[in-house]
Every structure is written in C-alpha cells, then in structure tokens.
Amino acid sequence: MRIRSNEYRKRSREIIRGDPAVREAVTGATLAFDRNRKQAYEEVDADAWRRWAEGVKNHVLTHLDDYLAEAEAKLEANGARVHWAADAQEAREIVTTLAEKASVKSIVKGKSMLTEEIGLNSALESVGIRVCETDLGEYILQLLDEPPSHILGPAIHKSLGEVRRLFADRLGTSSEDSPNALAHAARRELRDAFVDADMGISGANFVVAETGTVVLIENEGNIRLATSLPRVHVALAGIEKLLPRMSDVAGFLQLTARAGTGQPTGCFVSLIQGPAAQPGDDGPEEVHVVFVDNGRTAVLEHEHAWEALRCVRCGACLNVCPVYRQTGGHAYGWVYSGPIGSVLDPGLLGLREAMPLPFASTLCGACTDACPVRIPIPELLLRWRQEAQEQGLAPKAEGLALAALAGVASRPALYRLAGSVASRLGATGAGRALPVLREWSGDRAAPQPSRPTFRRLWRDGIE
Amino acid sequence: MKGKSRARDAPGLKGAAAEPRGTQGELGASESPGSAGHSSRHRVLARISRAVARREKRAHPGQLQTPQPPDPVVGFARRFSDSGGRVVTANRERHRGEWLTTFMKGLNLGATVGVAVGTDVPPEMRPNMPEAPPDRAAAGVVLAWGAIAETGSLILEPGGGRAVQLLPPVLFIWVPVGRILGRMEDALLELQTRLPATVALHSGPSKSADIGRTVVTGVHGPGRCIAVLDRTPSSLTPLRALSVRTEAYQHR
User: Fold this and answer.
1) What is the pTM assigned to this prediction?
2) Which of A224, A281, A283, A310 could lock A373 by a disulfide, CB 3.0 to 4.6 Å apart?
3) What sign results for the dihedral spanned by CA atoms A373, A379, A381, A384?
4) What digits encode the pLDDT tens for the residues A76-128?
C-alpha cells in the first residue's frame, strides 16, 4: 500500500471541506461502536480483564522468539506449513508462489489489515489470479478501488446512498433497495466466488503457540467459508499475534469482541490447527501460515513503542477518538489509522514516513481508557513527538500546535489531561516536545500538576 | 508466577523443536516458496531474540477469572437468543428425528424442501425429509460437540462436514445439554485434549452492518440459526474421537 501519511493535513482538509458526508458517516458509526463498547465493558470487570490482557501480551512480547518457535513446531506437527517473511515484498512472493504452485486461478479473501499493509491483492492480480474480497465492507471497497478506512468497519465512511448507487451500477439492484436487499445481492455474487475459489486467504487475530492454532474472529461467516471451501488456505499473521496457551484465547476473544463491537464474542470464531484430517473430509488440503515482520521487529526494539505491539486491532481507539471522527481513516495515509496508527506507523514505517501522525491528536487520552490491552497511546505520541523534534521533523509550532492549543484550551477536560500526561512525563523531558503545552507555558517552567492529578483522583474516587 | 516456568518450558530458539525444517544447509531451495524464506526465519528470530534480551521479562498473569454462569443451559439460551439465534427443546417423549421433522415442517423454509444433514448426525436425529447438497439445501442439520453459556456459542467440529454448517440459509443444530459448559476457557481446555483440524464457535446467525449501519443477517453464513436442545440421556454420550493429523506434511 502506498504511504501517504505526509499528506495528512492536506488530505484532512480535503475530506472535511470536500466530502462532509464522510464525517457524518464516520461519526455516526464510531459513536455507535463506542456506545456498544462502553455497555459491554460495564457488563464485566473490564479493568481487570484489560490488566490481564496487557499482562499476557507483555509476557508474549518479552518471550516472542520462544513462542514463535513453539507455534511453528506445533503448526508443522499439525500438518500446516509455516513461512517467514521479513518484509512486504517477501510476503507477497511467498503467497504468489504458493498460489502458482497450486495452480490457483481464483482466491477468496477474508478481511485482513496485514494483507492491505503488504499490498497483496495487486501482486496476485499481476500474475493473472482473480482476487475477491468477501467481507461485505471490503467487497464494497474493492468495487470502488478504495482502501479500508477503519479496522473493523472498512467501509464505514460510505453512506447507504453511495452503496445503493454503486450496487445499482455494478450488480443491477434498484436504487431504492434496502440494506438487506443489497447485502443479499452481494451474497449471491460472492457465493459463486466461494464455490469457484482454489485458495482462501485470511489474516489471524491470534496464533496459539501451545497448540499451533490460528484464531479468526468475524461476524459474517465469510472467513469460515474462505478457510473451509477452497483446497488451500493461507493465513498471514504479524509476528506479534502470538498467545501462549489455548486457555488465553477465551479471555482475548471475549475482550476483543467487547472492545470492538460490544458483542460477547464474534458470531463466528475459527480455531484452525491444520489441513483437513482425513481424505474425504471437506476443508483445505493445505494450510499455510506466513509470519510477517515488515517493521515489527523495529517496533519491538524501540525503547517505548514496543508496547503498541500489544494491539489486537479492535478499533476501539478509533471509535473514541475526536480527531479520527473528523476525517475517517483515509487522511492518515496508511492502513493503520487513528490513535493506534499514529503510534504504530512511525515504528513500522519510520518516523519520517509517518510524519505528522504523532501530532494528529489532542492527547485527550480516551483511546487509552478504551484500549483492551491498555496501550499508553498519549505517552507514546509524546515520545514520537520528542523524537520528531530531536530529528528536526516536528511541524512548525504556529501550524499544528496552535490549532491543537485552540482545541485544548476550549475544552477544560482535555486541558487537564494534557497536564496529566505532562506530569507523567515531566522528568523525562518529553513534555517539552508537546507543542500544546509549550505554547501555553512559554519559556516558563511548566506548571507541575499534582501527582496524581486532581482529575484522576476524582475519577478514581467515583469508580 | 506460573508464567515464568511456562516460558522456560517453551522450546528455545536453539532447541530441536525450534528447527523443525532442519538446518539451513539441509533445506532445499524447492522447499521454500519465498526465495529467502529460511534465512528470513533466522534473521527475524535473531532480531527478536536481541530485542527480547534487552528487555525485562514479564510473567504470564495466569488465568483470567471470569464468573461461572449459575445455570449453563439458561445462560447459553439467553446469550444465543440475544445474538439473534433461536433455542428450542426437543420433546423428550418422542423420537428425535420425528420431532425435528414435524418442527421443521412447521417453519416456512421456502419452496425447496431439500435438507443437508451432517454426516455425523446419528440416524435417530435426522429429519425424515429429502436430502440435498449443502449448496442447494433449504436447511442444514448438524450436531454440535457442545456449547458455551458465557458467550452463547455452539462448538462445531468439522467431521460432519463444514459446508453444511455454512451454506444453507437456515441451520438447525442439535445441542446435547450435558455438554453445555459455563465458561469459554473451560470449554477450550476440554477441547484442547482432542483438537481436530478446526473447531468453529458459532454464536448466532451471520451478521453485517457494513451497509448504512443497518444490521443484516444471513450475509454469508446461515441467516437463521436454531439450536435444538437434546435432553435425552444419550445426549451425554461422547461423540466420535477427534484427532489431529500428526505425520509430517508432504508439501506438493
């Protein structure tokens, strides 16, 4: 996927001014997602679940070499085949070669941000293979030749009217059709693709080291079909997707679903150990798992950013973010957008390529409170800002900083949170990299908020 | 902490289990679809090892204690219904296949009457209706391995056929009540001792809200899911043994 993060400000302006329907659609969808998440968190001891999940992921990330080796050994013992890709090009080559070796003509895909990241579809199409996205949102975007704008709802920036016009044009539906009728028109098209496909491609929500299990969560059933009907299944997994044990899956499935959509679990969960066991059983004859690095080891090496590798791609931080809501994901210029994109992309792409994403935030902290694995996104944003300043990459203060200051000053809660972040980072000097604070503190010593801050005391007191 | 000892038990990078594909010299080029597949494995793992060595190890926090639902059957029925599924109980006094036939005929399943039935559904639980292949059937009938109350999930193993679980627009799932477990973790630990090639957890009908934020059912998988609780004493009989293929996979 082409990286256009450097154009963030220009593209944000274009979207906000030129296509106001995007803001309306994204705001509506993310507010609904977030309402569901809040309610789903309230039904359980969400704080305890999130601390647990953070702990498991930290354990995995500090033993990642061991768990990857264990997962590989188990998967191969189950009859699956494991491949390693250091970068996007190698990942594309591995999948393309597998497809060519198996004489694949047609591929059905489940939603996978990693395959977007590595630009897999165009690589496969360039060797004459038909690739069909089967998630309904991804299918819409494939017809439009657009990238996804949200981790969970790839087409949330599209209104019903736009989909009606698209399907009327491409599938011959009526311009008055209900969402139900439109979805069933897509079902008919895609059913043929599932039956004809020789290969199914998926991502992986988790890979269990102990059992060699690829775990996939979804609601439509398209991933189950794509991993069951074709004779070859290829799962692409970021190297950070490991979980130690099968029993860990229970907590992560439930927490990820609650964080993402507010459901107790996804409607369909696949636990895939390997190819069909017996000759004559349906299910793929070949199962391949591709572990993809593509910048993840660089993030793992980073003193602070490694914590972003806990991410389970639920989208909760996008749904709660007042900045993401204005533009949707396309403005961020790469596959991972919103708060998590702003801390992950500088690590995966390099800070220069990802500028000015670490500045595309009001530091309100809502993302961290929503995050099921408690990634300290505002702190990581400040770290990246500090590095940007040290490398001379930071935007000029009179641009972004003043705009952000205006936003913060007009909202007392944000102002206090910015103070809280500064208090946590004060000793490291990272607070100085925050233009918002620099502007109001000027050359004076930054006012030191009490520790813990009043706001935190107040909040903790009522919880 | 349990986690620390657990991590030590994991195969180390230099351990035999970590090198299932032999050393670099033994690996023929034809075995690796990517031109640099094996060296990438080595490079990626070595880089991870270096990064990990510099960081303080964190222990696994142990098990997540989620509450035990007081009545698994009631809990399952509530969650599954909340997700758009339907739960019915087969009449204990009647032959189960006959009961299902009557029940299915009472629903409007469309003009086509063919039914696809999972190969592992025993004769006494099959409806007395004409059979059809999964891609053409008006309904499917399968047997669940068990169910989970905490999430309202059916546990489906692949032996009876995956297509019949996914392709028909209406799916009837026999659920032995003796195997409705309270917590997902307990179900997974139970499954772990006998993992088949794949296990699917189905928690209601296929859904999407990708068009106009309106929830639509039956986008790809079944649009109607009816869990049929089987309360006969035989509902506690173990299903056929599941197995994982263990011999080395021959790449073609």
Assistant:
1) 0.86
2) A310
3) negative
4) 999 999 999 999 999 999 999 999 999 999 999 999 999 999 999 999 999 99
Q: How far is A309 from chain B (nearest CA, A)?
A: 13
Distances (CA, A) of B106 to A8, A267, A331, B125, B175: 58, 26, 53, 17, 20
Helix, strand, or coil here: A298?
A: helix
Task: Provide the terminal-to-terminal Cα distance of chain B, rounded to the nearest Å.
Answer: 44
Only one residue has tokens 């790809």, namely B220
Facing residue for A84 by CB, picked from B37, B50, B192: B37
Helices (H) and strands (E) in chain B, counts: 6, 11
Has residue B31 got a pLDDT over 50? no
User: In the structure encoding, which two tokens stand for residue A110, read together?
Assistant: 């489940």
**Per-residue CA distances from A3 to A203, A348, A352 (Å):** 21, 11, 11
Interface subset of B 184-223, CB within 8 angstroms of A: 184-185, 187-189, 191-192, 195-214, 216, 218-222
**B146/B178 Cα distance (integer angstroms):** 8
Integer-rounded Cα radius of gyration of chain B: 23
Q: Are A135 and A222 in contact (CB under 8 A)?
A: yes
Q: CA A200 → CA A79, A222, A422, B167, distances in Å?
A: 17, 10, 48, 16
**DSSP structure class, residue B240:** P
Rounded to whole angstroms, the Cα distance separating B225 from B156 reads 13
Q: Are A173 and A182 in contact (CB under 8 A)?
A: yes
CB atoms within 10 A of CB A161: 12
Query: According to the model, what pLDDT value does residue A419 have?
Result: 52
Look at residue A444 in the predicted model and tell me its pLDDT.
Answer: 37
ipTM: 0.87
Strand ranges, E, within chain B: 86-89, 115-117, 139-143, 146-148, 153-156, 170-176, 180-181, 198-202, 207-208, 216-217, 224-230
- Whether residue A207 contacts residue A289, with contact meaning beta carbons closer than 8 Å, is answered with yes
> Using the beta-carbon criterion (under 8 Å), do B214 and A227 form an inter-chain contact?
no
The closest of B91, B62, B171 to A251, measured between CA atoms, is: B62
